[in-house]
Amino acid sequence: MSPDLGGADLKLVDDADGNDYVWDSTITFTLTEIKPTADRVDFYWGTNQNGSSAGGYSLDIGNLNDGASSNPFATVNGPFPQGAAQVTLTIPNTLAGGSFLIVQAGETRGGFTRVSNIMGAEVEEAPFSLQLVGNLQVGTDIQLKTTYGTTNNLVYFAWSPAGPGAGSTNQNLLGPKIDWDMNNPFGL
Question: pTM surpassing 0.90?
Fold first, then answer.
């Protein structure tokens, strides 16, 4: 670490606007106040603030890459005439919901190093979703695809060939009348 007399601290920000980091979403990180003559900047992510050393930096974050390696997730080579660099990170869907993902960047310039502030948020599991795959036309096959369901749990599908409210006596239902007889095959 070198003293950087008279210079502004490296500043790291993200574009999440205070939102949680949702599985498989992409967050953009911007590092400013980079010295124009810097050789490179490296970006690391970890899951705690226990500190670690990587790439010649003394970082405030630990458990880098969730313990998989101490390699940066991105490196940008200088020079930096605008004094800034921008990278993206896709939030891993292997991190438990409620855990934290924290990012920190380091600058290397002529053998000297310095690090940025930390930036991060709580990881949020993506919500369960159901998607129709294919064209919904008479005589064509379609598939229903689920994502982010709980492993080894059943997913129940309800359908109605006549549309919302079909078969109801009050016609005010927002969805189809559902028969949960699991012994009948699914199909139209």
Answer: no
